[in-house]
């Protein structure tokens, strides 16, 4: 076995003596245990998860679905970029969800703004679907559809070749379709990227870089 156990361990005794786990000699990637937990991945607001080291190619079409839960009004959800301008980005800014796409000719944005007293930063689960089909983009939050016009109809392919960054991104990495630098704080689950008929569910415990992110369980409420 070469990986750590995704679990809580307590009341450990060695030779009838209880170990003090409150003041360890050293500690690495160990978080507190929660009284109540839910499925998902917990982001503590300081880091990110990086997927597809060799680079993800968005090209003409992609459909992104995920569920999120947060009490923060700012936070990066997902970004895929290129060294040039082509990119896509999903983020929460001032309590709104923004889906940005640049196929090379210029950035377009679909914005979902909650109405009335409704908040997306209420600590409850919300379902998000972001769709790019050639030059058209749409955003569906909890079943509510937002579409936007694109003046750059001739430009249809986002030629990205960088990793998928979830919940944030490193300071030295350029993201052409994100305005926020704030790492996401909260929980994410069921991240699926679909191209054509091929749907890929991303397991956030199988990333090549993970900072401030705890797969397998979310606290039942913000702690």
From TrEMBL:
Residues 38-218 form the Laminin G domain. It holds the Pfam family Laminin_G_1. PANTHER family: LAMININ SUBUNIT ALPHA-1, PIKACHURIN-LIKE PROTEIN. This is LAMA1 protein. It comes from Rostratula benghalensis (greater painted-snipe). The gene is Lama1.
């Amino acid at each position: 076995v070469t990986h750590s156990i995704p679990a809580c361990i307590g009341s450990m005794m060695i030779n009838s003596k209880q170990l003090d786990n409150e003041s360890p000699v050293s500690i690495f990637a160990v978080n507190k245990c929660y009284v109540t937990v839910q499925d998902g991945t917990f982001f503590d607001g300081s880091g990110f998860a990086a997927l597809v080291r060799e680079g993800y190619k968005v090209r003409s079409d992609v459909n992104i679905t995920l569920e999120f839960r947060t009490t923060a009004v700012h936070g990066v959800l997902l970004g895929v970029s290129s060294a040039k301008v082509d990119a896509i980005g999903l983020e929460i800014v001032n309590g709104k969800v923004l889906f940005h796409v640049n196929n090379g000719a210029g950035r377009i944005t679909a914005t979902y703004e909650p109405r009335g007293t409704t908040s997306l930063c209420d600590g409850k689960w919300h379902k998000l679907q972001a769709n790019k089909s050639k030059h058209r983009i749409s955003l569906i939050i909890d079943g509510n559809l937002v579409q936007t016009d694109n003046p750059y109809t001739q430009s249809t392919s986002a030629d990205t070749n960088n990793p998928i960054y979830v919940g944030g991104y490193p300071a030295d990495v350029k993201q052409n379709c994100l305005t926020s630098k704030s790492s996401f704080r909260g929980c994410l689950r069921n991240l699926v990227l679909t191209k054509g008929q091929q749907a890929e569910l991303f397991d956030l415990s199988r990333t090549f870089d993970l900072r401030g992110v705890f797969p397998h369980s979310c606290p039942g409420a913000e702690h």
